[in-house]
Amino acid sequence: MRVGERITGTIGRGFLLLVGLTHTDTDAQLVWMADKVAGLRLFGDAEGKMNLGLEDVGGAVLVVSQFTLYGDAQKGRRPSFVDAARPETAVPLYERFLVLLRERGLTVATGEFGAMMDVELVNDGPVTLWLEK
After folding, report:
1. Residue 66 catalytic?
2. Which terminal residue of the chain has fewer beta carbons within 10 Å of its beta carbon, N or C?
3. pTM to 2 decimals?
C-alpha cells in the first residue's frame, strides 16, 4: 500500500481488511470484529478445505480505512456518505480496532487514515466476505 511514493504497509499472506465505520459503531462491535477476524479459517488445509486461520499460515492483516463502504448511491448519480463516521469519530474507532487486532496476536499493517492510497491485492482464491455486527 502506498501513499504517494511512500509505502505505508505491506504483508505477504493474509487478509486485506477494508474497514468502514459509521457514527453508531461501538467498542463491543469492534471487539466482536477483531475476534471474528482473528478466528476466521479461510485458508486451505492439505485437503483443500478452509480449515486454517491466520495463525496457522503465519498470516497478517493489512487494514485500510474505507469510508466509502458507507456510500449510498440509491438516489441521484453521486453517492452520499452521511452514514460514514466523521473523522473525529472514525479515527479513534479505527485506532482502537488496530489495537484489538494486535492484542489478539495478529501482525497488522496499515495505510494512512484519510489519505489517497494505492492498494495492490493478489487475491489468492475467490473469498470475499462482508462482516458486520
Report:
1. yes
2. C
3. 0.92
